[in-house]
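Justification of computing resources. Each target in the renewal requires a structure prediction run like the one illustrated here; the chain below, 154 residues long, is used simply to show the kind of job we budget for.
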Amino acid sequence: MNLLLTEDEASVARRLERLLRKILGNRITTLSLVPSVAAARHYLQHHPVDLLFLDLNLNGEDGFTVLHHLLAESCDVIVVSAYGERALEAFEYGVLDFVPKPFSEERLRQAVDRFLDGQGETDRPLRKIAVKRRGRVTLLDVTHIVMIQGADIY
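Resulting C-alpha coordinates:
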Protein backbone atom coordinates (compact mmCIF):
# COMPACT_ATOMS: atom_id res chain seq x y z
CA MET A 1 0.00 0.00 0.00
CA ASN A 2 1.26 3.46 -0.94
CA LEU A 3 0.81 6.15 1.72
CA LEU A 4 1.30 9.89 1.48
CA LEU A 5 1.50 12.03 4.62
CA THR A 6 0.90 15.73 4.06
CA GLU A 7 1.98 17.43 7.27
CA ASP A 8 4.06 20.58 7.82
CA GLU A 9 4.92 20.06 11.51
CA ALA A 10 7.98 17.78 11.64
CA SER A 11 7.23 16.33 15.09
CA VAL A 12 3.64 15.46 14.14
CA ALA A 13 4.82 13.98 10.82
CA ARG A 14 7.40 11.76 12.59
CA ARG A 15 4.80 10.56 15.12
CA LEU A 16 2.25 9.87 12.40
CA GLU A 17 4.84 7.94 10.38
CA ARG A 18 5.97 5.93 13.41
CA LEU A 19 2.40 4.98 14.37
CA LEU A 20 1.42 4.08 10.81
CA ARG A 21 4.46 1.81 10.49
CA LYS A 22 3.45 0.18 13.78
CA ILE A 23 -0.20 -0.23 12.72
CA LEU A 24 0.33 -1.32 9.11
CA GLY A 25 3.76 -2.97 9.27
CA ASN A 26 4.74 -4.77 6.08
CA ARG A 27 1.52 -3.75 4.30
CA ILE A 28 3.25 -0.47 3.51
CA THR A 29 4.95 -0.40 0.11
CA THR A 30 5.87 3.28 0.19
CA LEU A 31 5.38 5.94 2.83
CA SER A 32 6.21 9.46 1.67
CA LEU A 33 6.01 12.75 3.52
CA VAL A 34 5.42 16.17 1.96
CA PRO A 35 5.06 19.45 3.89
CA SER A 36 2.99 21.66 1.58
CA VAL A 37 0.01 21.90 -0.73
CA ALA A 38 2.24 22.32 -3.80
CA ALA A 39 4.38 19.31 -2.87
CA ALA A 40 1.29 17.17 -2.26
CA ARG A 41 -0.24 18.10 -5.61
CA HIS A 42 3.05 17.40 -7.40
CA TYR A 43 3.48 14.05 -5.65
CA LEU A 44 -0.08 12.97 -6.42
CA GLN A 45 0.39 13.79 -10.11
CA HIS A 46 3.47 11.59 -10.39
CA HIS A 47 2.99 8.72 -7.93
CA PRO A 48 0.24 6.21 -7.16
CA VAL A 49 -1.27 6.73 -3.70
CA ASP A 50 -3.73 4.43 -1.97
CA LEU A 51 -4.21 6.45 1.20
CA LEU A 52 -3.53 10.13 1.84
CA PHE A 53 -3.22 11.56 5.35
CA LEU A 54 -3.93 15.27 5.05
CA ASP A 55 -3.49 18.17 7.45
CA LEU A 56 -5.77 21.14 6.76
CA ASN A 57 -3.32 23.90 7.69
CA LEU A 58 -0.09 23.53 5.76
CA ASN A 59 2.09 26.57 6.47
CA GLY A 60 -1.03 28.74 6.31
CA GLU A 61 -2.33 27.12 3.12
CA ASP A 62 -5.67 25.30 3.09
CA GLY A 63 -5.29 21.53 2.77
CA PHE A 64 -8.67 21.37 1.04
CA THR A 65 -6.85 22.77 -2.00
CA VAL A 66 -5.26 19.34 -2.33
CA LEU A 67 -8.68 17.69 -2.24
CA HIS A 68 -9.96 20.00 -4.97
CA HIS A 69 -7.28 18.68 -7.30
CA LEU A 70 -7.54 15.12 -6.03
CA LEU A 71 -11.16 14.57 -7.03
CA ALA A 72 -10.27 12.72 -10.20
CA GLU A 73 -7.71 10.51 -8.46
CA SER A 74 -8.49 7.17 -6.91
CA CYS A 75 -7.20 7.31 -3.37
CA ASP A 76 -8.85 7.50 0.01
CA VAL A 77 -8.20 10.42 2.34
CA ILE A 78 -7.98 10.60 6.10
CA VAL A 79 -7.81 14.17 7.41
CA VAL A 80 -5.62 14.64 10.49
CA SER A 81 -6.20 18.16 11.76
CA ALA A 82 -6.61 20.37 14.80
CA TYR A 83 -9.50 22.12 13.06
CA GLY A 84 -12.36 19.90 14.21
CA GLU A 85 -14.90 22.52 13.19
CA ARG A 86 -14.00 21.69 9.57
CA ALA A 87 -14.85 18.00 9.87
CA LEU A 88 -18.25 18.36 8.20
CA GLU A 89 -16.65 20.18 5.29
CA ALA A 90 -14.09 17.36 5.01
CA PHE A 91 -16.83 14.74 4.80
CA GLU A 92 -18.53 16.77 2.08
CA TYR A 93 -15.37 16.13 0.04
CA GLY A 94 -15.87 12.42 0.64
CA VAL A 95 -12.96 11.82 3.01
CA LEU A 96 -12.89 8.46 4.72
CA ASP A 97 -12.29 9.77 8.24
CA PHE A 98 -11.39 12.87 10.25
CA VAL A 99 -8.85 12.33 13.04
CA PRO A 100 -8.64 15.33 15.36
CA LYS A 101 -5.28 16.48 16.74
CA PRO A 102 -3.91 15.65 19.17
CA PHE A 103 -4.55 12.04 18.16
CA SER A 104 -3.99 8.76 19.93
CA GLU A 105 -2.69 5.54 18.43
CA GLU A 106 -6.11 4.00 19.07
CA ARG A 107 -7.94 6.73 17.13
CA LEU A 108 -5.48 6.52 14.23
CA ARG A 109 -5.83 2.73 14.20
CA GLN A 110 -9.62 3.11 14.02
CA ALA A 111 -9.28 5.33 10.93
CA VAL A 112 -6.83 2.93 9.27
CA ASP A 113 -9.14 -0.02 10.05
CA ARG A 114 -11.97 1.85 8.34
CA PHE A 115 -9.77 2.07 5.24
CA LEU A 116 -8.76 -1.60 5.43
CA ASP A 117 -12.37 -2.71 5.93
CA GLY A 118 -13.41 -0.81 2.81
CA GLN A 119 -10.68 -2.14 0.52
CA GLY A 120 -12.07 -4.17 -2.31
CA GLU A 121 -15.47 -2.50 -2.05
CA THR A 122 -16.58 -1.91 -5.59
CA ASP A 123 -20.26 -1.39 -4.93
CA ARG A 124 -19.87 1.74 -2.79
CA PRO A 125 -22.38 4.18 -4.28
CA LEU A 126 -21.07 7.32 -5.94
CA ARG A 127 -22.47 10.39 -4.19
CA LYS A 128 -20.71 13.29 -5.89
CA ILE A 129 -19.05 13.93 -9.21
CA ALA A 130 -16.38 16.55 -9.88
CA VAL A 131 -16.94 18.91 -12.79
CA LYS A 132 -14.16 21.23 -13.93
CA ARG A 133 -15.26 24.37 -15.75
CA ARG A 134 -13.20 27.48 -16.40
CA GLY A 135 -10.49 26.33 -14.04
CA ARG A 136 -12.85 25.72 -11.11
CA VAL A 137 -13.90 22.37 -9.72
CA THR A 138 -17.48 21.96 -8.53
CA LEU A 139 -18.91 18.94 -6.72
CA LEU A 140 -22.34 17.90 -7.98
CA ASP A 141 -24.65 15.58 -6.10
CA VAL A 142 -25.30 12.66 -8.47
CA THR A 143 -28.96 12.54 -7.48
CA HIS A 144 -29.40 15.92 -9.20
CA ILE A 145 -27.88 14.79 -12.51
CA VAL A 146 -30.39 14.06 -15.25
CA MET A 147 -28.03 13.57 -18.19
CA ILE A 148 -24.31 13.66 -19.01
CA GLN A 149 -23.17 14.29 -22.55
CA GLY A 150 -19.62 14.53 -23.87
CA ALA A 151 -18.44 16.87 -26.61
CA ASP A 152 -15.34 15.76 -28.48
CA ILE A 153 -12.47 15.76 -25.98
CA TYR A 154 -14.50 17.40 -23.22
